[in-house]
Amino acid sequence: MSNDSLRVMWFVPPAIAVAASWQMPANLRLESSMTQSSDEQYSSLCAGEVDAVVTSIDNVLHWNRRQGPQDFVVIAQIESTTPLQLVGSSALSAPADLVGANILVDAPENGFVIALRALLKEAGLGADDYRLTPVGGVRERFSALVAGEGDATLLGPPFDTMAVQRGLKKIATIQDVFANFPGQGLVVRKSVSHANQALKAWVRILNASLTTLPGDAARLTQALELLGMPAEAVTALVNTFPGTLTPSREGIELLIGQRALLGLPGADFTYEQIVDCSFLQ
C-alpha cells in the first residue's frame, strides 16, 4: 500500500463515506471493497490486506478474545445506529415463538447476533432453545431466509421490507428493545494504524463531513440512489447519518452488558480499552 491510498472493507458504503468522497483530495485514494462476512473482515485485517473495516462494534469485543493479534480498536462510529429487524416465518409472532427455530446469522459468537441472543434471552429463551446457522452478511441471510433455509434472521433496510413482500413477517425491532444500540464502527489494528497517514487524513475528512446534513440532504440522497440502493435503504442511511464520530459510550457499554448477560467472552472490556479517539483529535 502506498502512503496516499487507504483500503477499507464494508458491507454497504456508509452515508458519511459517500459524503466524504466529495472532499477527497487528488492525492488520497480510497480503495473500498465489499465483504460477505465479519470473519472475512477479521482475516483481512489480520493479514494486512485492508487497513480498516466498517463493522458491528461488538466484533471488536470478540476479535480481541480470539487467538490472534488482539489489538483491534474502534476509532469512529460512522452511523448513529444500525436499524435491525428480526424477520421470520409468517407463523411467528413474537421472539418467544422461536423455540426450536433455525436462525440464520453472520457469525454465531459476534456481531449483531449478540443483540439478537440478548433479545431472545430477555424473552425467556436459552441458548439451547434455538439453533444458529452461519450463512454470511445481510444479503446472504436475506436470500437464505427467502429460500426457506431458516426460520428467522436479522435484516436491515431494504431487506426487511423485501422479505415481508415475499410473505415473511417482522417479529421484533432491536432498537425497540435496546434504545442505545450503536451503529457500526470504523475498526483498525492499533499496532499498525497510527503510522497510517492516509487513514488519519480520511478520518479528518469524515469528521469534516459531519456538517453534510441537513444542507446537502438532497445531494446525499441522490448520491446513494446512484449507487443502486433502494429508496428504503437510502432513507435509513440518511436517517442514521452520525452527528458525531465519537463512539457512543452508552452504546458500547450496552454491547458489553449483553455479553455479560449471555456469559460470553469480552464482557470484561471497558470502553477505554476498545476505543481509540486519538484519530478524532
What does this structure look like?
Belongs to the bacterial solute-binding protein SsuA/TauA family. Pfam families: NMT1_2. Keywords: Signal. It is found in: Periplasm. Its main location: periplasm. With 281 residues, the chain is α/β, with parallel strands linked by helices. The chain has 2 domains: 5-81 and 182-280, Periplasmic binding protein-like II (D-Maltodextrin-Binding Protein, domain 2, 3-Layer(aba) Sandwich), CATH 3.40.190; 85-177, D-Maltodextrin-Binding Protein, domain 2, CATH 3.40.190.10. Helix content is 38%, strand content 17%. It is built from 13 helices and 10 strands. The chain has helices spanning 15-20, 38-47, 58-63, 112-122, 138-146, 159-165, 174-177, 190-193, 197-208, 217-226, 231-239, 249-262, 271-274; strands spanning 5-10, 29-34, 52-55, 72-77, 85-88, 102-105, 131-134, 152-155, 169-173, 185-189. The strands form 2 sheets. A 5-stranded mixed beta sheet has the order 2-1-3-10-4, with helices on both faces. A 5-stranded mixed beta sheet has the order 7-6-8-5-9, sandwiched between helices. It is globular. The mean pLDDT is 96.
